[in-house]
Amino acid sequence: MFKNKRIRAAVWCGAGLSLVAGGVGMGAAFAVPAGSVRAVAPYAQAAAVVNADGTVDRSKGIEAVTKTATGRYCVELEDKSLDVRKVVPTATLQLYAFDYDVQVVTKLDPQCGSDPHTLLVGTGKPGTWADVPFTLLVS
Length: 139
Prior knowledge:
Blueprint: H1 5-19, E1 30-31, E2 37-38, E3 46-50, E4 56-60, E5 62-69, E6 72-77, E7 89-93, E8 101-105, E9 118-125, E10 128-129, E11 134-138
Parallel strand pairs: 2-4
Antiparallel strand pairs: 1-5, 3-4, 3-11, 5-6, 6-9, 7-11, 8-9, 9-10
């Protein structure tokens, strides 16, 4: 694709920065606040920057976020034509230690009510759940 290492790095950094524009809620399924910052992610179907407590800094195409337990977040997509079993989600941790990890479940999960429009995102260390801020991109 891009032969030059600097160009590849610039493209990936640009993609990551555009992700840093997302939003969500916490607890018992908080909807994204009407006045919250809208993410600038022109090529994403949905994107969010989610804090460790489940609140959202910025978002696009996210209906709500529910923090179901330590390190587990249900992210509901706004567009009901999107099915979690068919989309391609990517999640990354926000400036955290290297021994932490983030995972996105792309199947119906009972923790999120087996809803085909809700992704389960898990964060933590191997064998231990932990509340960690993350970004999510759905392409």
